[in-house]
Write a structure and sequence with these properties.
The protein is an alpha+beta fold and 207 residues long. It is 18% helix and 35% strand. The protein has helices at residues 7-23, 25-41, 121-124; strands spanning 55-57, 62-70, 80-87, 94-96, 101-109, 127-133, 139-145, 153-155, 162-163, 168-172, 176-183, 187-188, 195-196, 202-205.
Amino acid sequence: MFAPEGWPFIIGGAVFGVVAGFIWLPLASIGVLLALFSVWFFRNPDRTSPEGEGFIVSPADGKVVHIGDEPPGRYLDKPGKRVSIFMSPLDVHVNRAPVSGRVSLIKYNKGKFHAAMVDKASLLNEQNGVEIVTPEGRHVTYVQIAGVLARRIVSDVKEGDVVTRGRRVGMIRFGSRVDVYMPQNTRINVSVSDRVRAGETIIGAFR
């Protein structure tokens, strides 16, 4: 399976390859390679979220680059915790809901395009924050953050939608970062430099 956002790139590469083949055969290989790369990049593998109550799963594939306490601010009304995950161009770029619940707020901030690995990207880069309220009333926000190469944030949800943990909620094209904001008393289950998988890796648990 692959994400539908990849169709323009796959079809474009294939058409370029066919047209180029009539002009100069070696040029057609560029289109073929573009189409094959697009199929690989926009892959959307099936994922099975862990069973059980109170778990928060990773919304992205990638590497944990930050874990820490977070003061009240753009995405928190009171002190909480933040886990940041860096998605390289080689990672699956489909994002998934970290918890089940209702989308209570979507907050888009137009910003810059600093390297997603650096922590200032959480404040300064273009980003799309989605707050989910669980049936128990807990608030968890995931934030899709654009980077140097990632200039296209895709969100598949809107305010009022009900999502289940592990469901596809969007993607970021060509490498970037996703931050997760959680309640202060959340037990964190990962460490910096850990590799995580969207929809499957448990990054935290409600106490």
